[in-house]
């Protein structure tokens, strides 16, 4: 599919944010002290769709994750069938959207669709910092818990009704729990057969019995939601497929579909190698990040090779790789043997619960001084300590202030904290809580049995301890500005405080030369 879109000229710049107004310099910048309540509450529907990971029905609807990991991920076979259907209706093999502007801007937001306060809290800041952008990309998990088409009106169309430009997406594992049927209908205008192929083997009856079939697609309901919330001509777009490229004169943005278990099929791998060829600078957008929590996850390709091998190849000229799935912000500027620097970024804080950053060890992938994360490890530990204090009804034992938590992180990891405090060594209680909640000692995490569940348990069990609906939310999104000479990525933090909605704090800024 070829689509000519975009106008020449520089995009409108985002609001200037004072350097002092972020989490690295003050507790107020982190959202611990709100001068005014967030206006996002006025955006909420009269009745918020019920959503809690504590509900057995929610966990049951997400069961395809377990089935895929135990008996094999059918995403590759389903995707091949859907891609064949797209090509039969005339979509060219390149799966590329063409835009004519060399200077443009776009938003990137990951893991959005819970449909509750934590998603809506992102909207005012996103609209403010995203003023003048040409399009938005959602990286992973558009709809929780299971990608149903019926959830799109409340969790996609309505929240982003005031964003005036097109929205593209790459699917996440939760979108695949529906066999990708809802995603394909909304983003690709395709209603395909998304049933899995037959499983083989003596236990094949087990996945056949437990696999959750795709939900129904009520075309009239989705059409009415699109018309009511995102019906303006400038908001319309049909992307070529579940994986795609957006080609511009200065940058090619390549989006891949990593299914449920974080791999791509043989045909998508061949397409990725083809679309990655040539001297034009490129950025990868993926449902699963290639570096996360100081670990390398290169993303295998069916038949051999990995996505990261393609990204690192100097002949392909990638400058950045951005993934969702993990609900925070992490930035690893990795130096390669040929002297280039590749910027690996995690940006999954677009609306779902927060994944802890305090469990990230002192980085070995890059120098700790070059690593950035949001929320800061100390803020993450403070937030989780309050959650556990409330959940276990032991607030006096567990709850740590941001200052206490930062001192404990500094003590255990041996790093300079992101927000400097002139504080004494942490108390024995703070060190004890930090150990229980998973702060590693130095560069090595403690054994799993010695910690309370924070990051190691599967999401369907841990997320109930990591969701809240009051500031600070510690969500994030990216604004990407592109010229012929430079790519500039800015991570904006979302606290939920009213005083941060029109000028959201800039938590990281990554300028990347393109020439």
UniProtKB/TrEMBL annotation:
PANTHER family xrefs: CALCINEURIN-LIKE METALLO-PHOSPHOESTERASE SUPERFAMILY PROTEIN
Taxonomic superkingdom: Bacteria
Gene3D superfamilies, sorted: 3.60.21.10
GO MF annotation terms: hydrolase activity
Domain Calcineurin-like phosphoesterase as annotated: residue spans: 105-207
Positions of the UniProt region annotated as Disordered: 1-31
Protein's UniProt name: Metallophosphoesterase
